[in-house]
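G.,

No rush on this.
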Amino acid sequence: MNNEKWDALIACLRKMERAAVAFSAGVDSTFLLKAAHVALGKNVTAITGRSVSFPERECREAAAFCREIGVEHVIVEVDQMAIPGFRDNPPDRCYLCKKELFSAFLTAARERGIGIVAEGSNADDVGDYRPGLRAIAELGIQSPLKDVGLTKDEIRALSRELGLPTWDKPSMACLATRFPYGERITPEKLAAVDAAEQFLRDGGFRQVRVRAHGDIARIEIDRGQFGMLTERSAEIERTLRALGFSYVALDLGGYRTGSMNETLTKR
């Protein structure tokens, strides 16, 4: 592969000699794990956190990919509901969660004689409100994609060249991001949001977020699919009501990442 940033990434990873990769089966972490496998071979281990905010289907995809490329896969159980402050969903919830999650990853790695844990933040993540990056920095977690300046579009293009199944996978984020800051998070609410989004994905909606505002479900999809949603509005409303929502609304702004962060500037 003739790409300067790819070459820089492989060189960066080879310097680690042995590493664990935080692996969620998303676009960025799949690309990073593949690169680490190219650079380090058997000296890379994938670590996935299983929790109530991480859909089980993603955990299965992570395990399947590790089997396919022949990488050791470790699953760490994380009880997010036991993390102090997590349920209350403060603006720094992601910091609280990432600190606990990556501390567990470090422990799992060190138990296997691995001193470095790498994760998949990219160059585009720097400008957004991402308190989790502070936890990653405090713990000394490595972010090689960000370090070599790889953007999301570049990662998708290189993933396609590599034949990775995630090159065009829709962006995924922790299910806890579906709730306004300050709204209490429960396992039941997380399950309802997960089921609602899976229903919409199964119905052909590619990029989906169901943001839960109390008993209101605010659906974010690509604007190009608004017509398809309105044609099926009765079925969608009926299904989401059955999941516990009293009202179902379409966000005319369409899908965008981090929409819950928009309220922070108004506080």
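When you get to it, here's the other one too:
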Amino acid sequence: MSYTPLSRHLVPRLFDILAHAPAAALIGPRQAGKTTLALEAARLSGRPWIYLDLESEQDRAKLAQPELYLADHLDKLVILDEVHRAPGLFPVLRGLIDRARREGRRNGLYLLLGSASLDLLQQSGETLAGRIAYLDLPPFHVLETAALPQDALWLRGGFPESLLAPDDARSLRWRQAFIRTYLERDIPQFGPRIAAETLRRFWGMLAHHQGGLLNTAQFARNLGVDAKTAASYLDLLCDLLLVRRLPPWHANLGKRLVRSPKVFVRDSGLVHALLSIPDKETLLAHPVLGASWEGFVVENLLNCAPEGVQGYFYRSSGGAEIDLLLAWPDGALWAIEIKRSLTPKLERGFHSACADLNPAKKLVIYPGVEVYRLAEDIEALPLAAAAQRIAGAPA
């Protein structure tokens, strides 16, 4: 297998931002391919550029007096990797951007790469408001890996080193090492010292609970900590883009609706590594099978959706339920049911939920290869076909 970084669907948007904004921030978990994508984009831009890794002592030394160093490179695209490690840079960048604007250089000055979410970066980046645009880079999704078997993406997840490993055993070893590195080295950068084993247990609980409703009190009891501490662990994993809280849909429908979010470990390969699932045969016999497939589909569809599309789920106390509800900027809703069956059948709860919400489209995602109608207004689609349709729909 070969990894072609320019297969990433984000490339055109990144070029567009660099052409129209002074700075772009590319945010994603470690090892998702941010650096590879940024360097390839810089090479293709045709402009002079420099790259600084803020985890490198040598590169950090260059920025001992950042204003002096960066002022010498206002004619270049400056790539700053792991920028969350130097929050003091943001006011300096603001001044340099404003100076470059006065001199007629308005766009494509800085490309910032970070392993933390927008929420964490905003704590130190508010000074760049109006000067920077943010892009999320998740691991590979299904539309970027059409040449590979979909089940390989599901089993191994989308991190390049895991997905493209020579065999499943080496892929699993890479993911296990990735988890250990996050726990022992990366996570301590972002908050109070947390015992690696405690957080490993919590992450494993989330994998066992994949796609379940958030019950912070239960997690806290199982860990032997208070609910506030358990909530802070979850916040941290969400900020690091490793866990997703899928919010419930709320509307004034006169019904009692579930108000707790669903919780997913975002990368299916990490789910399987946390549960010590080495290969597809083991996965197919594991109790997490259905939840793993649901999380895999949810993450891929949300990663393929156009900018501005929001994801929710819908569940009422009366049993009405939709696995994934896409809310489009124009107010339209798409109802998506996820089935791990070659002959998917819809329960009464899906029909009841659709009667409540009147979605514009109703889709059923299943692991087959054909697109066909289950009813006049309901289609069954393979994941890749659904992702393509969602990606191509106007936002």
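Residues 168-186 form the longest helix (19 residues). The two ends are 34 Å apart (CA to CA).

Enjoy the weekend,
O.
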